[in-house]
Design goal:
CATH superfamily of the largest domain: FAD/NAD(P)-binding domain
Strand content: 15-25%
Number of helices: 12
Oligomer: single chain
CATH class of the largest domain: Alpha Beta
Number of strands: 20
Distance between the termini: 19 Å
């Protein structure tokens, strides 16, 4: 309780850790956030025309009772409940998500190609795939891979699929067997309830960022904004900020991107910097378009595997809450576009390219462009931590070394593990770390990755 704990970063993980420390009665901690707002990648912004925008398409679902209770405490009943209405745009039609479960919506020749491919691999799944691309072909066959799984994942990850591990899949991808897919076609049955986000919540007002702003009254002076970390001296156990201020710590919780964290350390640790070069990220552009006309659809979000549109996902953000737009005669669309050295993006024309993609895919009519009353572009340097073949080797070199220095790295990019990078995972990483720091309690969220921490005893 008397050790000084410094938290770098006011995103979901940092706030979760700070909240739990305060809840446990700890007073000797301080959270430092580089921006003048909290929330990190889960922040929200209101533009001058009254449209609210998130940093990408976030929805609230949970694996943890503590997280559910925390949300209820923070926002009370100020949530809306939704059943997912998610679709994939293929050719001239929308197919319900998951694509592989709803092949009956496809043109007959495409449907036949997908079913035939699935049938061919159904009896030969032997778990010998060595990368994500091979896994796609082994699980779904060449038809589903051709029309959706391969082109969509190439767009979202902006990274060669054959260089990605297949070990991250878990609940992220619906694996359908041939008989189920066939029966869905023969019985003309919709199969849309798969996945943990088939039902989700969303704040009534203020976007996703409303959740994280609601932490602040509980933390008070324990949060310092506009404090960007510049250097961390591991011998003196001090943090130097860009404004020249310095603070000491006994234990340091960092949610900064791991690649940046290791470069801040002094004395320098070249071996960790070298290991971090194996960590790959996807960057993203989020394009928001506000329309002065009634919303034409009840869809939640849509996936776009084809090249006719630059975005991989599109959200009817006004359908999440009517408070996301200025009035009932408005609606908003939020497009997400990935880029990387493997998939370059011409940013200067991204709004026009997005509008043209909406027209080409039939989401809007061309004349609706005249009704666009607001545009909002967010460039996100760190969007997805890519689960590459080299990731675990790099993390197993970096994370235990930081632990020995009293530095605990957590969060979406702090730990660089996509599989536990949702909002509930991220908050709970911070919550459980607080319990560990004060009471040596086990950390269930990261327990499946104990091999990265030097063995089980390092985390529980």
């Amino acid at each position: 309780m008397n050790e000084r704990i410094v938290i770098i970063g006011g995103g979901p993980t940092g706030l979760g850790c700070a909240y739990r420390l305060a809840e446990l009665g700890c007073e000797s901690f301080q959270l430092y956030e580089a921006n003048d707002y909290v929330g990190g990648l889960a922040a929200s912004f209101v533009d001058r025309n009254g449209f609210t925008w998130d940093v990408g398409g976030h929805v609230l679902f949970s694996h943890y009772a503590y997280f559910d209770e925390l949300l209820a405490r923070l926002l009370g009943g100020r949530f809306l409940n939704h059943n997912r209405a998610s679709w994939i745009r293929i050719g001239d039609r929308f197919v319900p998500y998951p694509f592989q479960n709803n092949l009956r919506y496809l043109p007959k020749e495409v449907m036949s190609e997908c079913l035939s491919g699935l049938q061919r691999v159904a009896a030969n799944r032997n778990g010998t795939s060595k990368n994500f691309l091979e896994w796609i072909l082994e699980m779904f066959g060449d038809g589903i891979a051709k029309y959706f799984m391969q082109p969509y994942n190439e767009k979202v990850w902006a990274y060669p699929l054959e260089k990605m591990s297949e070990n991250w899949i878990a609940e992220r991808v619906s694996v359908v067997d041939y008989q189920r897919a066939l029966q869905n076609v023969l019985q003309q049955r919709d199969d849309v309830s798969w996945g943990p986000n088939s039902a989700f919540k969303f704040p009534l007002e203020g976007g996703t960022g409303a959740i994280y702003r609601a932490f602040l009254p509980y933390l008070g002076a324990h949060v310092s904004l506009r404090k960007r970390c510049a250097r961390i001296n591991t011998e003196k156990r001090t943090v130097l900020f860009e404004n020249g201020e310095e603070t000491g710590y006994d234990r340091l919780v960092s949610t900064a991107p791991l690649t940046e964290l290791v470069s801040m350390l002094e004395p320098a640790k070249p071996d960790l910097v070298l290991a971090a070069k194996s960590l790959v990220r996807t960057s993203g552009i989020m394009v928001g378009l506000g329309f002065s006309r009634p919303c034409p659809s009840d869809k939640c979000w849509m996936y776009f595997p084809e090249t006719r549109a630059p975005f991989y996902r599109l959200t009817y953000f006004s359908n999440y809450s009517p408070k996301n737009v200025p009035d009932d005669n408005s609606f908003s669309l939020m497009a997400e576009i990935s880029y990387s050295p493997y998939r370059e993006l011409e940013k200067s024309n991204v709004i026009n390219d997005t509008i043209e993609g909406l027209v080409q895919t039939g989401v809007i009519q061309r004349e609706w462009a005249a009704d666009i009353s607001s545009t909002h572009v967010i460039d996100v340097p760190f969007s997805y931590p890519v689960p590459t073949m080299e990731r675990d080797r790099a993390l197993s070199a970096i994370v235990p070394a930081l632990d020995k220095e009293g530095i605990y790295t957590r969060g979406r990019f702090g730990l660089w593990i996509y599989e536990i990078g949702n909002m509930d995972h991220s908050v709970m990483q911070g919550v459980e770390l607080a319990d560990f720091l004060l009471n040596d309690a086990p950390q269930s969220v990261i327990k499946p990755y104990s091999f990265l921490f030097g063995g089980k005893n390092a985390i529980d």
